[in-house]
Amino acid sequence: MRLQAQMPIKLRNKILGGRKPLICIPVISVNEKCLIDEVNEVIKMKPDVIEWRVDYFENVMDIFKVNSVLKIIRKIIDDIPLILTCRSHEEGGYKVIDGETKLKLFEYSIESGNIDAIDMELAFGKERIERIKSIAIKNSVKIILSYHNFAETPSEKFMTEKIKEEISNGADIAKIAVMTKEQGDVLKLLNVTYNARKEIPNPLITVSMGSLGLISRLLGFVFGSDMTFAAGVNASAPGQMPMDEMRRFIETII
User: Which residue in 14, 148, 162, 188 is the catalytic one?
Assistant: First the structure.
């Protein structure tokens, strides 16, 4: 049985029970053959969650091709929860993809029954988010609303407001990822995570990107971040460390 409707519950139970965080591995290969090979390698690493960064896919504009590949991925990964992400170019995405294409891509993917969650930027817009949310509810797919800043770590107030804005706009899971320029930036992110965790019942994903932010990927769960991202075959963001190294570290400290 797949974990669609239970995904946020699973996330929260792991944290509330004092256990290790979920580890998600993104897959980012450009063509179908390499992608399938990558997925087959990733499942050997036994991640808790897999994310397909479809914005890297060479046929991302072909919605029917995307869904054909989604069906193959689902068969390979079986009951591992699958997140579909089509990251905007403005927030670190590989390609420039227009809003209408993304909207149709999200709709078809959700209705396919092959994904468990979808990651959209908060900046995608209230009207579009509401449209996708209504379809997601009908198909037991969870919504991750996210904010990415590859230039800096904003103020704690700004990041806290972004999390609250994501929740108010329908996020089942709220996510923020910000770039670290100095050690104090990591402390800001972790403090925001800790305080948000006390106020917000929804699952949270918070990340300090970059080499200095690596500690947030390893210890963020101590402060309330429910999921972290590790590199499998490829890394999808600055600061991701290999899956086996991350797992060993987390298991050492819990």
Answer: 148
